[in-house]
Structure formats: C-alpha cells, structure tokens
Amino acid sequence: MSTPLIRLEGIGRTYRNGELATTVLRDVNLDIQQGEFVAIMGTSGSGKSTLMNLLGCLDQPSTGRYLFNGEDIAQFGSDELARLRRKTFGFIFQSYHLIPSATATENVEVPAIYAGLPREQRHQRAQELLTELGLGERLNNRPSQLSGGQQQRVSIARALMNDAQVILADEPTGALDSQSGRDVLALLKQLHQRGKTVIVITHDRDVASHADRLIEIRDGQIIHDSGNPAPEQPAPATPVADEDHPASAALADTGEAVRMALRALKANLFRTVLTLLGIVIGVASVVVMLAVGNGARQEVLDRISSMGTNLLLVRPGAPNTRRSQDGSTNTLTVQDAEQAALVDNVVAAVPEMNGRVTVRSGNTDYQTQVTATSADLPIARDWPVASGVFINDEDDQRYAAVAVLGRTVATNLFGNADPIGEYVLMNNVPFQVIGIMSEKGAAPWGADQDDVVFVPLNTGSLRLIGQRYLNSITIMIDDLRQADATQEAVFQAILQSHAGVEDFQIRNMASLLENVAQTQNTFTVLLGSIAAISLLVGGIGVMNIMLVNVTERTRETGIRVATGARTSNILQQFIVEAVVVSAIGGALGVIGGLAFAGGLQFFGTAIQFTTGPVLLAFGCAFATGLIFGYMPAHKAAHLDPVVALSAD
Ligand code: ADP
Ligand code: MG
C-alpha cells in the first residue's frame, strides 16, 4: 500500500470560547487515497464542516496528526499551508463564497492571482473553465446576477483554476434546486473520473450515494466507513506543484494589488470620495500654507536686501531701551557721522534727521516726511535720482533752500508735469526742486519710502525741523568680510566722542536680515504645522474607513485565504488600498493646492512655489496611507479564515 494522500491520526478539535470548551471532533482516524471519491455524511452539527476545514488546511487540529502525502502539516509554516490551499485543494462551499464585487471571471481568477499566473493566461484560463461549465454567456456577470446553480459552477471553476488535486465540497448542493444539484454532482463525478480526489460533505444520503465510499460521522466521531469498494490503482501522486510561477515577481504582485484596490474603491465610490476629501484638503492646505509662508518670507527678505546688506545703522538711545517715537533721545550728532566716516572700510556715513512738514505748490498742500541729509544718501541707500540732481555738499554749507522730491510727493503735487526748477513752500520758505528720486517702493515694515522730501542737513535742521540731533546715521561699508571689525571700529569711534557713554546702538542689515528670516521661518513652520494637523486628520479618516472596509470584507478575506492567499498578500492588499486612496488624494491635493495658491497670487498675495513643500505634502499623504493603512491591514491579514468565512 502506498502512502495515502491524506491520513488523519487521532484528530481532535476543541473550540475554546473563554472558559467554554466545545469538543467537536474526537479521535478521528482516516486514510484517503489519491483519486478516491468520498462522501462524508452526518446530521447537522455533527462536525462535518470542522473536519473539512481541517482537511483543507484552513484550520489546525487540537490533537492528533494530519499527514499529507506522508508529511505532518503541523511542521508547515503559514506560507506553506497557503501554498497547499492554493495548489492542492479546491474548495466548494454550500453558500458558494464568491466575492460579490467581482465578476464571474474575476472570481475564478482569484486563486491564480496568488499563484502568480500572468494576467493574460489567467484571464484566458478562467474563461475557458467557465465556458466548459456552461457559463460562457455569463463571464462578466456579478454573483448577484447569477442563479444559485450558476454561482456554484463559478465556485467549481474557481476550485479548478490552479488545477487542484483534491476537491473539497461542503454541502455543494445544499442551497440548490434538485436539477442544479444533480448537475453539480455530475460535474463532481466527471472530475473524479479525470483523476481528482473528491471529498463531498453532505447530510443527504442521496447525494452521498453518488460517491464510491461513504463515511458516516456523528457527534464528531466516525461511526461507519464503507471503505473503498474498488480501490483504483492510485495514480502516482503528482507532486504538489512546488514552485509558484516565476512571474510572481513582487512588481507584478503590486500591479495586481493596485488593480484590486482600484476595483474595491470603485465599488464604494461615495465613501472613497469622502475619504479622498480628507486627504485632498490636508495636502492642499500644506501646499498652500507653505507657499504663502515662504512667499511672505521671501517678500520681506527681498525688501530688506533691496536696502543693501552692506549697511550699518546707528540709532540714538542706549541698547535694549525703547526709543520714544518722537525721537526725543537726543544723543546722535553730526559729529558722530563725521567720526564714523573716518573709520577704515567706511564708504559713506549719511546723517538723517526726520520731521513732518506740509509742502505747498500752488493751491495744493501735501503732508509728508522731510528728511534732512547729506550728499551721500543716494549711494548709501542705493537709491539714485530719476531726474535732476541730489543735494551736494555745497548746498549744505550754503544752507541752500533746495529740495529733492520722492516719487509719491512729486506725483501728488505736480501730477505728470516736470517739477524741476519749480518752487514749493515748506514752513513758508520757498524751496527750489532740484531733483526727483527714482521709485523705491514699500519698506520691509510696509511704509511708502517714496513719500518723502530730502533737503540739505543744515537747511532742514535750521528751517524745517528745528533740532540739532540726528534720527539715524546710515553707514555704508566697502568690504563685507570685515563688516564685524568695521562695526566695532565705528562703535569705538562714536563711543569716544560720547565720552564713553553708550547712548546709541549700531545694527547691521545682515544680522537684521537673519533675524527677520528666522521670524518668518517660525511663521512658515507654524502655518505648515496647522496644515499638517489637517493632513493627520485626513489620515485618521483613512484608517477609520479602512477599518470599516476590513470588517465589511471579512468574508472576502476568508475566501481569499481559502483560495490560497498568503498572509502577506492580504496585508499588501489592504495597505495598497490605503496607499492608493492617499496617493490619489495627495495628487489631487497638490493640484488643488497649487491652483489655489495660483489664485491667491493672481489676487496679489505673495506666493513662493517650491518643489520641497509639494513633495513633502505628497510624501506625507503617501506615508499617511502606509501608516494608517497598516493597522487595519494587519487586522485583516491575521483573521482566522474559518471565522472570516462564516462572517456575514
Ligand atoms: P456540521 O458542518 O456537521 O453541521 P460543524 O462542523 O459546522 O457541523 O459544527 C459542529 C459543532 O461545532 C456545532 O455544534 C457547532 O456549533 C460547533 N462549532 C462550529 N464552529 C465553532 C466555533 N468556532 N466555536 C464553537 N463551536 C463551534
Ligand atoms: Mg456544515
């Protein structure tokens, strides 16, 4: 006698529900040879399905040994058991267990997906099998569009898809009308004649009578075994196809998983859209917020840099004290500017004295700022005149009543007319306009820099502002690399002329720039974090939906495991689904975010588009899918297949 295909030795199965232990099978001993047609008969609740699940490696015995082809399956790992289910066993269930969202062909293809059969071949074979079983017209129908008999034939085709050696049928006719039932039995008989080992489970003696061998089971024990009346010479056990198709490279797997994911997502479109929305909003807000934050930062930095980074700014008042707004801190003098100008590496030291003044031309009055300063201002501030000339040293010495108008002032007083040579009245003193400044634009703090009139220092001090103290000295340096040394030298020079009292402060634009950049970065990070939170919320939405998905599709998962899916296949399937949702949401979010930011830019908000935030947001969405999809997927992958199959 050769090794039986299946040998059960003292098999027992006890279900444990907390304290409660139910023993369903006890001491079952059974040999089944290759090529037999066996019926296992018993009343409802006698343990037939439990036995069948054990035979098909969906379940493990509590006691005893199960030898398949002489090998103890207790030694097999989960992937090897999956391979047995995939390659060796074909299941047929009473309630068909088809995947409701898949067509007949797709249902039949499932076992071959996990065996790694290439798409085309798989498709073709599934259609051939279905046609052979008389379903050639029904290839693209979903289970709900098929009669019970047709559904059962689909499930038979599925059982044959990987050319299983052993067909396990659990009450295959239980839900069918008698004609369909007879058809199914005829099919099983045919399969047996073609050399398959067929094991049918039934409570119906008529059905059982079709088999060559009858095993009766009651209360979990075999009470009668007719034995095999005409033991066929068993065909040498065709070795279980050992290797999966080489084409089952991970890549093909992933492509398949993505297709399955898209199908599953399409099956529940409204829910998918809602889930997507969370991710889309999250990603879009990250993109928009960072574009706005970076835009604001760049705008401020540009304005500051446009003032020149090679500047030192001297202000009156001791460091770290608030300077009163009216400039009453009277500590900075023209002499300080002259001292500073003597320091090495200093190109120019421009004194500035500010006041408010009303300028009149003809009947037009205009309130503006007057700045009394020296000839070097255009150089130091990098601000040339647009027409005419700037104040020179001689004007200063002569106390000349000349003025250079900022663009805003010129436009307000003279419109488009050329004011050069004209006179304006300031404090009832006529000043001749000798030049117009080029347009400078807004200052970093937002003020209009063109709203100003420049006059010579002495003239302004005496006739317009009425004070002798400066509001600031702007110092332009030559070699930026020596900025620190120069700053220190200027500091010492002024300190000396102030008799050692530090009643002034020096700042350089470079460090100011750094400070502002830092503040703006904080602002951007803040915006980004708020947006990231909305992405997180989107991710939680994904996890929520995936958990619902996994629960809803518990039975589908059971079917996939029964037809040979590995734990990793199930894990991959649900993770890919989560990632596909997140990636689609991410892509839409990026597009939406860029469009929105573009709209903001159109309406005048400073926006900076950079690839960084876009990639970051998309990457986060992708990672969100992975992270939040993992938990539900893990849950699905570790379902007990028997329990999963009986879920509704
Ligand atoms: P049959 O298929 O012969 O009708 P089953 O094998 O499905 O019988 O069940 C046999 C017995 O085991 C039944 O009494 C059933 O209630 C019990 N049973 C089946 N599955 C479980 C389970 N997961 N936990 C506890 N009891 C179970
Ligand atoms: Mg049953």
From TrEMBL:
One of its GO terms (molecular function) is ATP hydrolysis activity. The chain crosses the membrane at residues 269-292, 525-550, 574-600, 606-630. It is found in: Cell inner membrane. InterPro entries: AAA+_ATPase, ABC3_permease_C, ABC_transporter-like_ATP-bd, ABC_transporter-like_CS, MacB-like_ATP-bd, MacB_PCD, Macrolide_Exporter_MacB, P-loop_NTPase. Residues 6-244 form the ABC transporter domain. Keywords: ATP-binding, Cell inner membrane, Cell membrane, Membrane, Nucleotide-binding, Translocase, Transmembrane, Transmembrane helix, Transport. This is Pyoverdine export ATP-binding/permease protein PvdT. It comes from Pseudomonas jilinensis.
